[in-house]
Amino acid sequence: MGSEPAVPYWHVNVPEADRTAECPEFLADASDKDREILSTPDQEYHIQTWDDVLQIVKSNRLEELQRVPSELRRYKEYTWKLALEHGSVSNFVLRHRLGWETPIRARGRPFEFPEDIKILYNDWPYGIDPRIVHLVVWTKFSLADDTPNDDLSEQRRRDIDHFVAETFCSRVPENQVSPRGEVSFIHSFNFGSERLTLLAREKVLWFRNFMSLKSIHGVEHFHVMLFDPDPEFVKFITNGDYPRSRMPGKHLPHDPVSRPGPDSL
């Protein structure tokens, strides 16, 4: 008995009635890695746990953070349409998600002024445990790479560590802060009438993609993941933002500009 014929990667996870003989234009330039992911049935995809993500970030294997195959397909279609309508994904992010004018100019030094920073959801998060909230911290200032290894300088890492601890975690001594630090307590702060619980340090991680892995090059940013955070805290820190991938049929290029984020904690 012969084996079943291979299904083209653009047919996988697509109802038979919706399949096309030719590869859709938005998938025509998919990389070998993306084609391999797109060829995987959703039910065979391994959802990455918090421990998985911690190990990936700790070992700097960021290329292993991947989207669920059907979500990758939607993401590719989404960004393709954005580029057609706005010239580039960066143009859309600047105008419709950040509301920043070009050229981008920071008011001060890195992390000095809240208006140089905006925290939003990742519109298309990876295929991870749904309890993990994936945010993106967008900055008007550069997080310049330490060439030639395309990595951050030690000083910039310390700057980001401090910002992440101050913004997302309990107020911990600076000498205890690191991307993989372990501070085993949770604290609450009062924001007016709101009492919001910040996370213990081991429930927060951050990373910045290497240049080769970035999908948006025109605006500086790094990623923050929170494990099972207080939803009200996330709502506060993002000023009510939501990932566009949650809004089928409504998340394409005409979203209003996100409102300005909170000034500070």
UniProtKB/TrEMBL annotation:
One Gene Ontology cellular component annotation held by this UniProt entry: cytoplasm
Among the GO biological process terms of this entry, one is:
N-acetylglucosamine metabolic process
**Where does the record place the region Disordered?**
245-265
| Pfam families named among the record's database cross-references | DUF3605
* Superkingdom assignment: Eukaryota
Identification of the protein by name: Uncharacterized protein
